[in-house]
Structures are given as structure tokens and as C-alpha cells.
Amino acid sequence: MGDPTADETPKVGAVRRTRSPAGTVRLAEVAAIAGVSEATVSRVLNRKYGVSASTREQVERALAKIGYERPVKGEIVLLLIPALKDAIFAAMCTAVESELSPHGLRAVICPVVPGSVVERDYIEVMLDAGIAAAVFLSSSNTLRNADPVARQLLESRGIPYMSVNGAFANSRTPVVSTDDWQAAEIAVSHLYDLGHRRIGMCAGPVGNTPADRRVEGFLEAMDARGLSDAEDLVVRHHFSVDGGRHAADELLPLGVTAIVASSDDMALGAIRAATRRGLEVPKDLSVIGYNDSYLLDFTDPPLTTVRQPVESLAESCVRTLVTMIQNRAVQATEALIDPELRLRQSTGPAPI
């Protein structure tokens, strides 16, 4: 079938062609256009080793010229994620799988330490299994100066990939992310409207793209409200309950009346630090998290948080991914999707 979004008006001097049916292609025609052998065309179509990047591009351009779309039915998409124990990643994987299914695609979930040998191993093992694409979901794409080997393996076989919540440096692939700057603005605005002026931040580790962006957004939001000492109220730690507890232990002696946490786990750790000091949340300290899960309705107190738009992220990711699998052009840009505030009971008026 043709691309329903394509412009059907012939360009001046152009040869009008119809798309080749998905899954069929005349090797001789493509080989003649690309100036390569039929065997080379076959290797590109089957994403095999032994074809240089420049030759692969020649063949891909020839395929595009005859209107060929890669078949997508029954193929595998790798989802490279940092862990399944965090509710946000389980939710994202579920949402992506739901979006992939109507296209005949199935997800294989690969929990890895971002940028580790395990990440590369997963890709190497799956390369010959007929994978259609890969998604780096808060994996090595979130790390500054990440080892490029994992994505280079995909590039060497002409397998499309994209990332969620963080772009690779020097990579011309699309990205879809939650707007972390806006998330920080939402959190600060909510607390400021409640009368808080001494607001601290339990932030994620330095060099993690989402964590760095949330810190930037926090400082901008505080500065916009004339709260110029905000840099002294940011403590960086791991995305974990213990990380939040340790960060809050540093912030509470500084007299903060509210804490913005870079994750829900960190927020729960901050609440634990406060209660150990005999403080009540939200009477003495307001705490707001980031990510969201239905489980937060059952914490004590239920946690106010800034929700990542999981469904919108998944929809945008899969829409772009399918376009890439079909060998159609996409913009190598980052799409930012707005988060939203989920009010519960861990935030309240600033203490008098």
C-alpha cells in the first residue's frame, strides 16, 4: 500500500512510482539503481554484517526510490531499560508493548545497567534473531559520554533505533522525552503557591540527562520567583529511597520547608528522613515526587507527584519507530511531552 501521508502531486521532472508491496522487492532493479550486486542488496535487506555504512546508505536510497517499505509483521523490538523493579519502567514497557501490538511487533524487554557490557551483550545476542528496531528507554542514552558501542552495533546492521528520555550525543536519531524542565516548574510553582520559600531539591546523579535537566528547571523556576539561593539547596544522589533519605538528611538542617524530589523513590526516602527527625508530612515538611504510580495512593501520606505522560511517550515512540522500520524519513529531533501534577496528600501550606 502507498503511504497515506505522502504528497500525491508529481514533482516537475519526477518519475511517478508506486510503492513496492511490503516484503517484496526486485533485487536486480535495486542493485542497478544503487550500483551494487544483488547479493549486497540482499544483505542490506536482511541486515547482515559485511556491508559498509556508505554502501548501505546507497541501497537504502535505492529502496526508497522504488517506494519499498520494510515489512514489520512478526518482528522484535528490543526495549533496553535500567530496571523492572521501578514502577515507571514497568508501566512504560507495558504501554510500548500495547502500541507495538497492532503493527505485528513484539517487545523483548532487556533490563540492563546503562552503558554496561550487558547492554551490548543483549544487542549482540539478538542481532541475528530478526529484530526490527531497538529503543533505549532511560538506558545509556541518559548518560553523558556513554560508550557508543551498543548503538554502533545497531548502526552496523542498519537497524533503526531511538531513545526515550535522553538523546545520545552525536547521534542523528529521534528522541521523545518528558519535559523535565517543565516538570520542575510545575513542582516549584505548586509549592510556591502554598507559601513555601525555602524549597530544597533531592536530585539525581550528575551526568544523568533527566536529572541534570530537572536541576536546571528547578533553578530556573526558583530564580524566576526571586529565590536566588536555590543552588545551595540542591543535593545530588542516587535515584533510590536511600538516595532520597541521604539527600534529605543534608537538606533538613538547612531549614527547608519543602522538597522537590527527582523520583518517587527519592521522595519516599525524604519522607522517611523527615519522620525519623520527628517531623510530620505535610504539616512540617511538604514533599513532591516525580514519575507517578497507582501505588502512591497507598503510601503514608499518599504522595503528590509530577506524572510522566507514559501513554503519550509510548504512542509517540512507536509511531516514529514504525516509520523508521518502514524505511521512511523521520526528523532527528527531540519531541518534548508535558508532564502533569498529581495532587495527593504529601504537600500542604508552609508552616508558620
Give your account of this protein's structure.
The chain is an alpha/beta fold. Helices cover 37% and strands 16% of the residues. The chain has helices at 27-34, 38-45, 53-65, 87-100, 117-126, 149-156, 180-193, 209-224, 241-251, 264-276, 310-325, and strands at residues 76-81, 106-111, 131-137, 161-164, 175-178, 199-203, 234-236, 258-261, 286-291, 304-307, 334-337, 340-342. A 6-stranded parallel β-sheet has the order 2-1-3-4-5-11, sandwiched between helices. Strands 7-6-8-9-10-12 form a 6-stranded mixed β-sheet, sandwiched between helices. The protein is elongated, with a radius of gyration of 24 Å. The termini are far apart.
